[in-house]
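Give me the fold.
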Amino acid sequence: MALTCKLPHYISNDFWVFQFLGSLMFDTIFANAGYVLLIYLSLILVSTARPIYPLPSKTSNGSRQPLQTSRPYNIAHRGSNGEIPEETAAAYMRAIEEGTDFIETDILSSKDGVLICFHDVTLDDTTDIAEHKEFTNRKRSYDVQGVNTTGFFTVDFTLKELKTLRVKQRYAFRDQQYNGKFSIITFEEFISIALDAPRVVGIYPEMKNPVFINQHVKWPGGKRFEDKFVETLKKYGYKGSYMSKDWLKQPVFIQSFAPTSLVYASDLIDSPKIFLIDDVTIPTQDTNQSYWEITSDAYLDYIKDYVVGIGPWKDTVVPVVNNYLQTPTDLVARAHSHNLQVHPYTYRNEEMFLHFNFHQDPYEEYDYWINKIGVDGLFTDFTGSLHNFLEWTSPLSKNNIGDDSATKLLNKIASLVASYKN
């Protein structure tokens, strides 16, 4: 069932949200009592209790439109966070409505070991933690990837406490009207949003700061952050190598900047993985390897046994000087020669993020990266813009949405290759 209204304008003129018992509630209900009502309830009735929508949906999804696999993937970076505060249920719902292929999230942990969707290890920049005087004494200083960092850390709060906070927009130049409307969500709630979507939507979760999380959060039986991460995916049926039948049913890419976490997870689950690559000045958080080492042919040849692709920062793929693009590196070509996909990050519409070569036009940027550089997926804050560009330049037909004969042939080849490697 398609959404009957568009986020972020899903609140009608005669509809308002007010504060009641610490949760946001509403007194007008959409006429459509099905999917829209379930999702809207999940967004507005934020509390410490189990969410109203199922985890995951138990309804049949056999008739849902499959994932497209014929053009670069549209990856909703922290949801449609250019419009709605990042990593919230509303941001993910907006991205799904706008046509994303994958909803992307960062997975951290609460003090009591519950996996949550949140980007920063500290709560300071994107929540109202400063307004919660009851937590004033929780400020701490920890070493995070070699940097002494001070703030309110997720690992010092239980899930119940985190659920009392409200998320706000990271950037002051973006829409502020949704500040304070939505709570932090759990990994399971995030999965539920994807599984309850009216079409097949993939998930793209990151094992965020695993070294830091494993230092500060302990699970029974000596389990690691990576163990809990994979257990959650398996609990909800995620499995299968890239392009396999199981993967196409519930698509997932597991991502991390930490190569040892990806190697470790490879022994736990066969789902495809993406090795994220930071700026040229930042070494890997777990192995302390330089950018140049991890992008060498020797290393790409090693890591390809554990991942299906890399996710580099786009300004390292095509260097930038004084906001002008320089000569592209050969990283994409070399990655492709090792049979690795390339999913750069992050594409944003605002002028301060667009290099002068693109004349303040995000569509020119998409055209450059897709048609000249030849990337296989793009992390974007503005899912709708990327979807519009892809629809205009490579519209999907009934014959190239995930289950055509060519895709079936690729699936069979992928299965044969996987069997051979095993």
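The chain is about 30% helix and 15% strand.
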